[in-house]
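Translate structure to sequence.
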C-alpha cells in the first residue's frame, strides 16, 4: 500500500528518562485513534518518530490530528527514497512544490546530514546541487543561508529522508499520562480554556455541566455540548455529564439569604463535581476560575468553595486576565461559541449584592442547615451522558 510519511517532533517527552516509553506509547495511542480508519504505522529511528499513513487519508485529517495532540511540538511531511541523487532530486522537486514548503516562503536553504559516509557526494555538495535545482523550478525563491523562511532537510542514512521546516504542534504532554480529572464546564469563555490547559499537562478529563432547565434553556445546554465537541480532539475525547440542577437551585433560593445564593450554589456544584469525580475515578477537579474576576472568585470566596472539595481543585486560569484568556479561547476555536448569548444559571440567579468576602465557617454552617445532600444524590441519579 502507498504510504505518506510524516516526521513528528516531541518536546518535553524527549526529556523524560525511563518513563519516556510510557509517554510515547500514550501519544501513539492518541494519534492512532484520530487517524483511524486509515492504516498507519509508527516508526522510531534514532530518537525520531515517523508516522506512515495510507495516502488515501485526507491531509486535513492528518494535520488536525497532529496539531491537536499534546506532546507534539512540530511535524513535517517527509519523503523517503533510494540513496541516489536522481531519486533525491525527484523527491526534492516533489516536496518543494507542496504548500507546506511554498506558503509564505521567499527564501530557503537546504541542510544535509550524511551519516552514511560511503555516499559519493559530501553534504555540502548535495545541498548545493539540490538548492540549484529548487531555484530552477521555483524561480521566485532565493537562497538565504542565515535566516531562511524554510529549510529543506536531507538525511542520508539507510535511505534518504527529506522533510521541510515543521508546522507547529501544541506542545505539552500526551493526554492520559497525568491521570484523570473532572472538569466543571459552563458555557462561558473560561472553563473551555481551563480544559485546554489541563489537557496540555496530560490530564484526561470528563466534564460536568449543571443544567437548571427551564431557567437555563436547551440552547444553553447545546452550547456547552458544542464547546465539548470543539475541545474533544485536544482532550482525546470528552464525556459530558449533564446534571439536572433546577431543584437544587430552587432549594438554595428558598433556604438561604439572597446574598449567599451564588456561593451556596457554587458549593453545591463543587460537592456534586466531587461526588461524580469519585464515582468516575478522577483525582482532581478543574474549573475556569480566575482570581478576583467576579464576587465568587475573590480569595475569600475561593477559600470557601475550596473547603467544599475533598479533591485538589485545579484552576489553571487563576493568574490570567480576561484578555489573555480570550486570546487562547480564539486560538483553540471556542470563543465564538462561548459568546453566544444563552444565559447560565450563575448569571440568572445571581443576587444584586453578593457576598464578596465571605466567612468560610459561617457559610459552611449555612450550607449544612440547608440539608441539601439528598437532593444532590437524587440529581446524580438523573445524569444525562454525552460522549463527544
Ligand atoms: P466561565 O466563563 O467559565 O463560565 P465565569 O467567569 O462565568 O466562568 P463563574 O460563573 O463564577 O465564572 O464560574 C466559575 C467556574 O465554575 C466556571 O469556570 C466553571 O468551571 C464552573 N461553572 C460555572 N457554572 C457552571 C455550570 N453551570 N456547570 C458546570 N460548571 C460551572
Ligand atoms: Mg460561567
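Result:
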Amino acid at each position: 500500500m502507498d504510504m505518506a510519511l510524516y516526521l513528528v517532533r516531541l518536546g518535553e517527552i524527549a526529556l523524560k528518562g525511563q518513563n519516556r516509553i510510557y509517554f510515547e506509547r500514550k501519544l501513539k495511542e492518541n494519534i492512532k485513534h484520530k487517524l483511524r480508519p486509515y492504516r498507519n504505522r509508527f516508526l522510531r529511528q534514532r530518537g525520531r518518530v515517523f508516522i506512515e499513513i495510507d495516502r488515501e487519508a485526507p491531509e486535513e485529517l492528518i494535520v488536525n490530528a497532529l496539531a491537536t495532540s499534546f506532546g507534539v511540538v512540530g511535524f513535517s511531511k517527509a519523503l523517503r527514497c533510494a540513496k541516489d541523487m536522481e531519486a533525491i532530486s525527484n523527491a526534492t522537486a516533489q516536496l518543494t512544490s507542496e504548500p507546506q514548503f511554498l506558503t509564505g516562503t521567499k527564501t530557503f536553504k537546504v541542510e544535509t546530514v550524511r551519516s552514511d559516509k560511503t555516499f559519493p557526494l559530501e553534504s555540502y555538495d548535495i545541498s548545493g546541487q539540490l538548492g540549484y535545482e529548487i531555484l530552477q523550478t521555483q524561480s521566485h525563491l532565493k537562497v538565504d543561508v542565515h535566516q531562511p523562511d524554510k529549510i529543506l532537510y536531507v538525511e542520508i542514512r539507510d535511505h534518504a529522508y527529506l522533510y521541510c521546516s515543521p508546522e507547529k504542534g501544541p506542545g505539552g504532554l500526551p493526554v492520559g499520562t497525568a491521570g484523570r480529572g473532572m472538569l466543571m464546564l459552563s458555557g462561558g469563555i473560561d472553563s473551555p480554556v481551563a480544559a485546554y490547559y489541563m489537557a496540555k499537562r496530560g490530564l484526561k478529563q470528563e466534564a460536568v455541566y449543571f443544567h437548571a432547565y427551564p431557567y437555563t434553556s436547551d440552547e444553553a445546554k447545546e452550547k456547552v455540548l458544542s464547546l465539548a465537541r470543539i475541545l474533544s480532539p485536544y482532550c482525546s475525547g470528552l464525556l459530558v455529564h449533564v446534571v439536572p440542577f433546577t431543584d437544587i437551585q430552587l432549594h438554595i433560593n428558598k433556604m438561604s439569604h439572597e446574598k449567599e445564593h451564588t456561593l451556596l450554589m457554587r458549593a453545591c456544584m463543587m460537592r456534586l463535581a466531587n461526588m461524580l469525580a469519585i464515582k468516575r475515578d478522577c483525582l482532581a477537579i478543574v474549573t475556569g476560575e480566575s482570581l478576583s474576576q467576579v464576587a465568587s472568585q475573590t480569595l475569600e470566596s475561593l477559600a470557601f468553595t475550596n473547603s467544599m472539595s475533598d479533591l485538589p481543585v485545579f484552576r489553571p486560569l487563576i493568574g490570567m486576565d480576561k484578555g489573555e484568556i480570550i486570546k487562547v479561547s480564539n486560538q483553540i476555536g471556542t470563543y465564538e461559541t462561548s459568546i453566544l448569548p444563552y444565559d447560565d444559571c450563575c448569571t440568572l440567579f445571581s443576587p444584586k449584592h453578593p457576598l464578596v468576602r465571605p466567612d468560610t465557617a459561617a457559610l459552611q454552617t449555612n450550607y449544612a442547615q440547608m440539608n441539601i445532600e439528598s437532593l444532590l444524590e437524587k440529581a446524580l441519579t438523573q445524569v444525562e451522558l454525552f460522549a463527544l
